[in-house]
Amino acid sequence: MSDFTDIPILDLEPLFDGGNRARLAADFLAAYGETGFAYVVNHGISPELRARMFAASRAFHALPEQQKQLVALDENHRGYIAINTSTDVTTDLAEVTKPNQSSSFMMMREDQFVDGKVYLSGPNQWPALAGFRSTCEAYAEAMTKLGEQMMRLALSALGVTEAGIMKKFELPTFWLRLLHYPPQPPQAPDDLYGSAPHKDFGCLTFLAQDDVGGLQVQTPSGQWVDAPPMENAFVVNVGDMLHRMSNGRLLSTPHRVINRTGKERYSVPFFYDPHVSADIAPLPGTGIPQFASLNFGDFLRHELTASYDAHSKAQ
């Protein structure tokens, strides 16, 4: 991996208009094999739906704290995550002792019934806020379809014949997170972050940003490159599980958020991952395996218990 100074742009139009998909697959491999991040454009998600999602997020975060606490994060990782209740203690990218300076609402795929044998299986928690649930569900449905298309593109880029691989994603684990970052004071210590340096632990992350900015991506030499907002684009990155599945060919790149703009920042990340029961290992055709197989659910349990007060207290 070589240093980079800009985040590449990946145009998904060939997925929808029958264009040159082989070229798109090559562009995907170049972006995620060299940087691990890309701006994704012509992705098929309407600007109107994105605007509705941001409006719903702002409405939720404007609620009184007492009302948000009625849907506080539960052991199934759904609901409200208050500021100062999550810390990236599992990261090896920085010495993190202070909690992230953000609050959020988390929605996941809502099972038809609660299956106690499946980790994180259960219903969502919904605030008493008109139109909030329907907007979240519409956005999650659209993003799940985009996640599937991008995952298939990733396999094509790797030259991997699917051969049942997408069965791991028939009932995907997805996470829709509505994040609010208050402005950090100018005199804040250097180790106080909106989101501490970390790598995402899943497969694909689709980030919708407002116009404030604050996201930074780390180069191999340790420099931080800004990833400023681009209108109607998603910032899409690879997580640790897809890095492992690709046998290291697709990069899970460190990133962080520091909000020193003096403004409130809102972002909407959508995480697209395999079912929690999936075993993750290098895919056939990617070379001599460089990683041992692991169970995604077991990995998630360790990560969430270490990073979130709600999970550590449930142990």
Summarize the structure.
This protein is an alpha+beta fold.
Helix content: 25-40%
How many strands, what sense, and barrel or not for the largest sheet? 8 strands, mixed
Form type: globular
Mean pLDDT over the residues = 90
Any low-confidence stretches, pLDDT <50, length ≥5?
Answer: none
Number of strands: 14
Q: How would you sum up this structure, described in words?
A:
The chain has 315 residues and is an alpha+beta fold. Helices cover 27% and strands 20% of the residues. It has 8 helices and 14 strands. It has an 8-stranded mixed beta sheet with strand order 1-2-10-7-12-5-4-3. The protein has a 4-stranded antiparallel beta sheet with strand order 6-11-8-9, with no helix packed on it. β8 and β9 (224-226) form a beta hairpin. α2 (21-34) crosses α5 and α3 packs across α5 (132-158). The longest helix is centred in the middle third of the chain and has 27 residues, at 132-158. The protein is globular. The mean pLDDT is 90.
What features would you highlight for this structure?
315 residues, alpha+beta, eight-stranded mixed β-sheet, 8 helices
Provide the fold topology.
Layout: E1 9-11, H1 14-17, H2 21-34, E2 37-41, H3 47-61, H4 65-68, E3 79-81, E4 103-108, H5 132-158, E5 173-181, E6 195-198, E7 204-209, E8 215-218, E9 224-226, E10 234-238, H6 240-245, E11 255-257, E12 265-273, E13 279-280, E14 294-295, H7 296-307, H8 309-312
Parallel strand pairs: 1-2
Antiparallel strand pairs: 2-10, 3-4, 4-5, 5-12, 6-11, 7-10, 7-12, 8-9, 8-11, 13-14
Helix pairs in contact: 2-5, 3-5
